[in-house]
Prior knowledge:
10 helices
Amino acid sequence: MTRTYLVTGSASGIGKETAEKLRADGHRVIGVDLHDADIDADLTTTEGREKLVADATRISGGVLDGVLAVAGLVVPAPVTVAVNHFGAVATLEGLRPLLARSEAPRAAVVASLAALEEVDEELLRRIESGDEAEALAFAESLGATANATGSSVLYTTSKLSIARWVRRTAPTAEWAKAGIALNAVAPGVILTPMTAAALETEEGRAALDAGAPAPYGGPAAHPRAVANLLAWLTSEDNAYVTGQIIFVDGGAESIRRPEAV
Length: 261
């Protein structure tokens, strides 16, 4: 059966691969990005988020079977928090009424293995308070602060916050009890323009392996590895999985947290 999906971040990387996978499977896909998409919208702004919902409602005819919040940033600037957490939440909550009209609604968001790295606890608290202006102001004060691994704490914290939001939100009346499955995937190292240069050198591969050791299929995966899982999680075949953070990392999370269940 043909389903209608909306994918943010559809112009590149995991979002593009996911949109292409769904289309190849015969489904209708509404792509969202800053440009080169069915809906051009800036998810860092209220106007962009409102445009996303209005355009998605019009284009879809008022019903979406799947929403995939893939759009994300890694830059050490407050915009990272705005997109990775608040933009993703606005996408999923704003489009939830369209999902509720589907016979088999599913939703997913992209978190990250990087959420296991050091985060800024005060920034996390402010993000989870729901006050975006306050969170972004604090993020601005942190600037390009990095943790011990060199990762931007704005990135790691925003990826942890969105994963925790999924865990809290998925079992609620508005989602699970309304029949809407909500999950997250947490990729490890994925072959993208951002990682390509590091993967070309022994030193770069060693640095990536230090934080994301991937004995299965490493040192990096093609974006289709994530796209395939996203496609399944938001398909009708997913009849009983919700509230999960599923690592797509070649075994890195199990190495780093062998006793986690």
